[in-house]
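Contributing new records

If you add data, match the layout below exactly. Sequence lines come first and carry their own label; structure lines follow with theirs. Keep one chain per record. Anything else will be rejected by the validation script.
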Amino acid sequence: MSAAVRAPAPARPPVSRTVAPGPAPSSAGCRDSIDARRLTPEAALQRGWCLMRIDRPLEAAPAFEVALLSNSEAVRRDAAYGQSNAYLSAGQADRAAIAASRAPQSRERQ
């Protein structure tokens, strides 16, 4: 009796994702559900990018919404960019356009 030989499963093709600004922290910290409204804007921004890295854009969008409340122009700019990308990833181009307009963006990001 011959043993069946199994071919290795094909590798998944890489998925093109928007790269989050700043260093890439571990995604382990954003797997749990947390109400982003309980976070500081800066923590919400980091959570939004973390959620984007694990392909959870509809959870990332509200985190970016909280980050838009920051006093920092740079945080608001990154939050608007992140929220726009989250909506694009979720197939909601109309909401992405609105999100993108919530803070001025560099020419490169536009």
